Amino acid sequence: TPTCTLLFIRWELWDHNIKQLKNTSGPCENGTTCIFQQKDGKDFFFTLSNVRTNHTLHFSGVALGGTIKADGKICITPIDNVYTKIDYSFELSGSVGFVVAILKKRAVVEGTEGGLANMVTMAEEAQEAEIINMN
What pTM, to 2 d.p., does this model score? Predict the structure, then answer.
């Protein structure tokens, strides 16, 4: 299972738009703030909420003076000892964000689907490493 901490501190590994997290105010917990520096140079100011370790992570933020708002949710649900379900949603809103969401709909959808696929890969790799360490 990918942990909240792993997803948080290694965000750039699963989200292809993120260059790095900077100015992180604390660990992966409710109220932690950070800046998502995007590969295009833009900064998004985010706050974490609904953090339940190894279960949920909600991140919401703004860019361009609040004209772009973003909201993302990750929910990790163990099915059994082998399988885990990961749900990930992301949406843009705000006066400029709404326009970007319409004009770049395909890119937003592909980015969200790609992020989910990357989270699954990270989870599988972590699980394989755990099995190897147990042997």
Answer: 0.80
